[in-house]
């Protein structure tokens, strides 16, 4: 939702104020693999907002999350 996008933007701003660093850059440098990919996309907050669900993107996200979760 739009509020979620605003919350991500606010979070990134607060992170930058507190740590003097970019959240996305820190996530990229502190994580790796599929986990990094998922976290970076979430931190960017650039997904299109709206009620329509892109099933292909949702399926891709689910696959990435399952890979991260599985040993």
Secondary structure blueprint with pairings:
Layout: H1 2-19, H2 23-30, H3 33-44, H4 55-69
Helix pairs in contact: 2-3, 3-4
Structure summarized in a few sentences:
By secondary structure, the protein is an all-alpha fold. The protein has helices spanning 2-19, 23-30, 33-44, 55-69.
Can you describe what's shown?
The chain has 71 residues and is mainly α. It is 75% helix and 0% strand. The chain has four helices and no strands. The chain has helices spanning 2-19, 23-30, 33-44, 55-69. It starts with a helix and ends with a helix. 0% of the residues are buried. The model has no long low-confidence stretch (mean pLDDT 83).
Task: Summarize this structure as a short list of keywords or feature phrases.
71 residues; 4 helices
As a percent range, the share of helical residues equals: over 70%
Overall pLDDT: 83
Biggest β-sheet description: none
* Strand coverage percent: under 5%
Structural class by helix and strand composition: mainly alpha
Low-confidence stretches: none
Number of strands: 0
Order of helices and strands: HHHH
